[in-house]
Amino acid sequence: MGLLIGSWWCRSRFTDLELLVLDVDGVLTDGGLWTNESGEVVKRFDVRDGLGIRLLQQAGVEVALLSGGKGGATEQRARSLQIRHCLTAVKDKPAALVELQRSLRVTPAHTAYVGDDLNDLAVRPVVGLLLCPADAVAPLKRQADWVLPRAGGDGAVRLLAEVILRARGLWQPLAQRGWRDGNG
User: For position 155, which CATH number holds?
Assistant: First the structure.
């Protein structure tokens, strides 16, 4: 379907957004996994996505991570970005998301989700906006409200953060004066 960034519909949906839920592998990373000789998984995160997350948090958007994968890298990244809700090794993403919404008292209409693969498509009925990076699988891209023009792990979340902040009228002061906190 694809959102028009300048459209009234898009601006109103991002203005009312309370919860942004992000898949990790393929959204905050490029989907690749490296393992060291000890068998530990190492992931590469884009620092620009980290800044986007911090800006959204400052604007009052709750950001959560919801991943089917497990390992310490995701949890460490969540801690460094002060993300309070980091759900890993999740087998049933829709159920976990509904429980998170319930605990935060956020409705599906005020929830956006960014995912990249078939297991993310399952959350469609419980979110107001389903988004995906440019390199997501075709079935998800067909059903997404907006396909972000950046690939996962390559600033897709940072771009989304800017669009949300623009919709809320918060981007211009940042663009003029900058930001003085760490970007994670």
Answer: 3.40.50.1000
